[in-house]
Amino acid sequence: RYEHISILGLGAMGRALADALLGAGREVTVWNRSAGKAGELVARGAKEASSVGEAVAAGDLTVICLLDDASVRETLTPVLSDLTGTTLVNVTSGSVRQARALAGWLEGHGVRFLAGGIMAVPQSVGTPGAFILYSGPRDLFDRVAPVLGPMGRAHWVGEDAGFAALYDMAALSGMYGMGAGTDHAVTLVHAEGGDLETFKREVLRPWLEQMLPISVDGADASASVPDEYNPAMQAVGLENLLAASGEAGVPAELAGHLSASLWRMRRAVANG
Ligand code: NDP
């Protein structure tokens, strides 16, 4: 049974995870490389470990939330021999290959390992919209999910340890695409003297809400353009949009997503 959770890493995200677990009444031990980050958590009932080894030994389960894959390896390498038989859940962001290699490395040392991807920001951790992707052994996930549930709804995405990172990174690509589009949109409206609040509330939000399901459900990996979207018409539309953006003095870099779409439409036209 996993009753006591240790957290390695008290950056903005690690602190939010620890806070959510404490709020749900879990026993929590925390460790951070540099001192001074545990104060509020300790005041709320967490114990602070003075070393990685002490933290891992204190918990039935250790959640790792550091900067990147290199920092995870740097942190775990000195205590590797003490990790045999322990359960580690890594929610540090990294690439798919890094997640698979980390799982292989740790499992090779007798660690029960789950890879994670946090679909939340620190402010939303523990709220109903937050969810965390996990990949790795299903039976381990089934035991860990109820314990870590307070951090965010636990969602298993497969045995392949790389899948949590894969879906996390791909979803971030979608988010950054939307962010690039909305940044460009408001810059253009502002540059031409439009009212930003009216535009955001009455136009952009309802438009994106209408398009979101169509865009997500219609996406396919071939990046083909369905006939009903008439790529020739869309190429002209995108050229107009880029021209309007240039006329307003919006930096071309902010319109990169439009250039990518124009490239796709022109390719579809060229392919007939
Ligand atoms: P922060 O920059 O706030 O914190 C980074 C943490 O990593 C600190 O605890 C830092 O310790 C530690 N660290 C960095 N390098 C090392 C090292 N070489 N050895 C040991 N510890 C190290 O980042 P966040 O907490 O925001 O993010 C943590 C992870 O969560 C990242 O992988 C991030 O991608 C992911 N994430 C973050 C989100 C966010 O919105 N913040 C959203 C979703 C995922 P020290 O204090 O000593 O510097």
Automatic annotation (TrEMBL):
Residues 5-154 form the 6-phosphogluconate dehydrogenase NADP-binding domain. Residues 160-272 form the NADPH-dependent reductive aminase-like C-terminal domain. It comes from the Bacteria. It comes from Streptomyces marincola. Pfam families: NAD_binding_2, RedAm-like_C. This is 6-phosphogluconate dehydrogenase. GO terms for molecular function: NADP binding.
